[in-house]
Protein: TonB-dependent receptor family protein
Organism: Chryseobacterium formosus
Amino acid sequence: MYKYLLLLLFPVFVFSQSQKISGTVFNSKKEKLDSVKIELYNSENILIKSLFTNMEGNFSFENLSEQLFKLKISDEKYLSFEKSISAKSENEILNITLKNNHKDIEGVTLIKKKPLVKRKVDRLEFNVENSNISSLNAWEILKKTPQVTINNDILAVKGGTSVLVTINDKKVMMTGEELKNFLENTQGDDVKTVEVITNPPAKYEAEGGAVLNIVMKKNKIEGYRGVLSSKYIQTQYAKAVAGLSQYYKKDKLSIMGSYFRGTGTYYREGTDFVNYPEDGTIWISTMNRKDQAKSQNTVNFNVEYEIDSLTTASLNYSGYFNPKSFGTYNVPTLIYNSQNVAESNYTTINDHHSRTINNSLSFQIDRKLNKKSSLSWINYFTGNNSSKYQNVLTYLNFANQTPRETNFMTNNKSDVQLYSTQFDYQWKNDKLELESGGKYSFVKTDSQLDFSDNESGEFQYRPEKSSLFDYKEHNFAIYTSMAYNLEKWSFKGGLRAEMTDLEGIVSEPYEVNKNNYWSLFPTFYAQYTTDNKHEFGFSYGKRISRPSYSWLNPAKSYYNLFSYYQGDPKLKATIIHNLNLTYSFKNWNVDFYYRKELFPSMEISFQQHENNNLIYYFTNIEKGQAFGLSLYKSFEIKPWWSLIVSENLEHNENYFKGIDGVLNRNKVWNWVSNISTSLTLDKNSDWKMELGHKYYSPGIQGTFTISSQWSAYFVMNRKFFNKKLEAAFIFNDIFRSTQQKVSTKYGNQDNYFLDYQDTQGFTFSLKYNFGNQSVKNSKTIKKADEQERL
């Protein structure tokens, strides 16, 4: 009986036997290639399976039910491979050889592609991974990003300076020198892309006019590797940075940690000119600022763990510690009468030191719910603690007065704490994408200014010049957005609602400022792509720019007896409307844009003629608006020689009320030009060099008119010892041409200052790679198989 049953079932066993395709992938040197992606399509050209070759270059597709297939291999390092094949039940091995994807040009070889600019419906994507600028740090990469300019270390996107910086969509809780320091110590090899988002979608918080999102590469290298780096900078004085970055990946665990320590002396030259026409005097002060920072410490730590193939948890910590920055300024001031004779003078000696501590911690869980949807939960905490102390001694020698001296001291302490939690949900198929989520954040800042002087002959605390400032802000936001792709058309729209509840308490004079408001922030995008790849786009977005916490502090921070800085606790948030028309074709990217700002807040200067005081303070002006054209184009002159042209022409207007209440208009046509050329000289050592030129025509900021400036730079990179050691040389501001004149002139306001920020100098850096530097991540296949079960 069993024999007959076996005989009947034997044909079923034969015809149900699974088919198999397997083989090995080599390069032209007959070396086996690992981590090469292979895709298998059926006879109807539908993708069935995909996998990566293992460490020995082998692959195997098993349990195949069909007979005819198409095998495809696409890898940026090699030419595409495609082959029709039939599955075999026997163990027949395919040997596939991939050809290199580059050409040798008489000893000069382009071995790295130039940065790729890709236009998406809601952003411009600058792909720097494996490009000829990936050896730079993240700060230098931002300088080369389309539509981004950095002038006097101030970031701007298409002329707008309200910019939010994020890393992997997480807000970087740093500004100014701290942000620059952090990005300078972020390795360009770890950067995948920079996304320029001039109209951020509803998912992003409404704060800031534009978003620069730095997307970091995931660590795909199994095992341990490290990067030891050092940098020497010589400007007026020397500076140096050294650090260690370490990476470890094993199975589901990935860890990255880095520490950088910097030291050096910072220098800045300035000259102030103040004209008081009412008494016919001109005050001229010369300030050469020299500050030393012997220990600037930057720490970054990230751990990521795959709980399962659908759930990932990550923890990130970043910190910046500058325990002491100190200096002594000797500032002489000459006072000229109407006959241009120096009849009076005074000298200020400012002895000061400061401390800064910044800690940021984030925790995130990402969960795939099914093939189409996912959920993320992100938590942030940031603490910023700083203190600034100064002892100001002034020697006064005024005409018709007895020479005398005065002395005052200030101690300014501030503590800022921020916490936020955010949920994001995403659903996506081939044509439709839905996003929604909510966020809550809380900010608390405490500032204390203690003022003492010796007007009575001995030092006494002056409560009327001291101040306590406490500020609290709650923000709750919900959003939803939808994107739809219809053949040649792409659409995206969204709406974000934010509730802000704030309270500021000033001690001297006592004042309480409260405000509670809801705001709606709509966004809309449309993009059309023709058959020959011309791309036309339109976008609109409404944004808000809230004042920095330090801008709200009304305490007077004195520079000397006759000049101080002051914030305003009643500063309004700025509402920004952005309109963009875009065009892209091949390497051409053109933007026409319009920006309108209601009550923009900014720093301006103000002369008090009755006591000869010059005051710098933050305030809201009436409005600002700008329209312009931005162009970015990369030219490949030769396979080893490229040219990049980035231009921005803008008409900018600022409307402000003068001290007499009259509405004034400050306007200018502003042109920013950035042209660079780069060459790859040798394929074996990655020997590259670049020469560039930047030009800024005159600009404006509220009451200020800012003069033009330009600079030229030179960069050279080369690798040694089988590319484990990399050396770089950078010469910035070759002709020392970056000095600017910032002037105010309207009504009875007539002052300006000359500013040079010590930009001329050279940088020499070394970077040594050790440990495992090759990708051997066989786990990718396992993860893909598990996700197929969704």
Q: What stands out?
A: The helical segments are 2-15, 138-143, 176-184, 779-787. Confidence is low (pLDDT under 50) at residues 1-17, 103-113, 775-790.
